[in-house]
Amino acid sequence: MFLSLFGSFTQLAHPPCIVALQDPPVYRGKLPSCNLFSVFSPPTSGGCKPRVAFYVYSSFLATVSLLSRFFGRGDVMALDLFTPDGFFNPTTTGFTIINSYSTKARLNNTRSVPPDVIFPVSPLPTLTLGDLNIHHPTSDPLRLFKEDEIATSAPYFDRATDLGFTLLNTPGVFNQFSMSLVGRPGVLDLAFACHLLAPYFTEWSDPLPSTGSDHIPILLRFEAPLLRAAPPVPNWALTDWPALEASLKSMQVSPAPPIPTTKSMDTWYKTSMGRITAQLALHTPVKRVTFRSKPWWSALLSQLRKAYSSALRSSKVDRFDAALLASARAARTAYFKAIKKARTGYFKAIKKARTGYFKAIKKAKRDHWSAFLATATPQTVWTAKKFAVGRPPPRFPELPGATSPVELNKAVLNHFFPDEPARPFDCILLRFRDCPALAADEISRALARSSPSSAPGPHLTPNSV
Length: 465
Fold this sequence. Notes:
The chain is α+β, with helices and mostly antiparallel strands.
């Protein structure tokens, strides 16, 4: 499972900076190692093994200062990270992550890790995560709960709410699947962010394949809001309505299925709606006005824009005043010259910094290799040969048809857990013979009663369109 988890990181665009494990594998009192990650875990004593561990990416570790905090127990630990440049903005120089693995305690309706340990009062942005082994309607709203489950989980969620922690899980998305046929899936792996960290949270997802464990890997992503690229949205003010109207009139919508079922009707509706939204997207340009789209903007440009707008409004009041027209023309010229100068200087600085950065990397690698060969000894000759030839690929158990850890994982899962048999067909939907078909004016009246300012759905088409 450990090899499968870290081998699946190759599917991501960038490896995770920090990996938090609960109940990690331990062999002879030691945790498994990984070349690109440094491991941190609570100290063991009295034959007890650590129940939590952090694996920190080496490149990320080189840019921060790290302090491990232990609580005199092996099932919870914390990492305090510091950097003078700030994590999400220049003022956020500190960041805390608490990792816990809570199990059933001897007393009824209690767990081994109390709420006050994993939800502390801290001035730093705090992320609390782990396998808390509790069930609550907030994280799993469709589950039928027992009284003891509510009594066990309520103290944790109450303290989290009192201290301003927000649940990051997508409600109802299972992350634990029982290996037995009688067990039901659940939401046991939870993540909470305090009010100082919640604005930077962007994604909770499970894009990685299963590792063979009953828990699935979860990916949490945090980014600075001002540096986060907003998705493009349609600019309905610039829609080519005449061309769109002609395109919609010429479009042929396929008829409904003759024997409608729930699945066939849903497929027909999605296909027809997709063809309509595709025509809307074809005739509507997109817009994305964010801080990221104009990083060269400055306060001086804002002042020049205000001066230009003021002069332009004044010139429109009296179009025959030569002084006002000259003032507006001068303000406009100064404004656009400043924009051109700012953009040119910004992109030149980026190009210069990028060229210098990559040249410095090549020079540092070349100098280091030359110095290493110049000082090579009979003992380090084989090390130089390894660097020149390259590192051999990682070794893992072999199975027929499996050439990578991911394929090995899939082969084992498909053998022991084959796909479920096909489900029976959906029931046929009966037509209502006494109901007349909807008229165009009825649909128009229904749309007119809808609020034009309501947020659009996944198709990004508001009611006004």
